[in-house]
Design brief:
196 residues; mainly alpha; Four Helix Bundle (Hemerythrin (Met), subunit A); 2 domains; two-stranded antiparallel ribbon; 2 strands
């Protein structure tokens, strides 16, 4: 596999991991906490979900042929809850991610140097993919932080548990020594947590 095809595969894996990380945090969130704002200037998890979904729909619809900031996007309303329910927001989230995957999965290495625009600013496809991955990762980190804050001592870690890094690293080293295939970075941590 050449470097450009590897980039596309890794980008898709990173997007899937980003989505999964958020959803595993959301699974631990009550409806009350889903909508709770820490203060007037903070975004609730619900608002962050709505914003990510709005961005996904705008950036990835007709990705190669139209500007990533679609004229029908109303970004400011992504930071307001207007008759939104958890179900409606999660459906919006899911369809947004589906839009991304439908845009990125068919890309070929030659597409990476094509030019797309976001708010009139030219980007190579590679730059646009990286730009959005950074953006979504930033907001997914906020979701995880808030979900963990609200769950407190009841939080089920999404990565290697505290004080178990040496044990986890030894397990991976043993798998490598045996020539056993290892899971993806998030799956390996999940499997490790589930063993105990």
């Amino acid at each position: 596999m050449d470097a450009t095809q590897n980039f596309l595969s890794e980008a898709l894996l990173s997007y899937r991991n980003c989505k999964s990380l958020a959803e595993r945090a959301l699974d631990q969130t009550t409806d009350e906490h889903f909508f709770l704002q820490l203060d007037e200037e903070s975004n609730s998890i619900a608002i962050i979900v709505k914003h990510i979904a709005g961005n996904l729909h705008s950036r990835w619809r007709d990705f190669l042929t139209t500007d990533g900031e679609k004229p029908d996007r109303r970004r400011e309303t992504e930071f307001e809850l207007i008759d939104d329910t958890r179900d409606s927001l999660m459906n919006f989230w899911e369809s947004g991610w589906q839009t991304l995957f439908e845009a990125v999965e068919p890309l070929r290495p030659a597409d990476l140097t094509s030019t797309v625009t976001i708010r009139g600013e030219p980007h190579t496809v590679l730059e646009a993919i990286n730009r959005q991955l950074t953006h979504y990762s930033y907001h997914v980190g906020q979701i995880v932080f808030l979900a963990k804050h609200f769950r407190s001592a009841e939080w089920q870690t999404l990565s290697v548990p505290r004080n178990r890094s040496d044990e986890f690293n030894a397990r991976l080293a043993e798998q490598h020594a045996k020539g056993s295939p290892t899971s993806g970075r998030f799956d390996a941590a999940q499997e490790f947590r589930d063993e105990k």
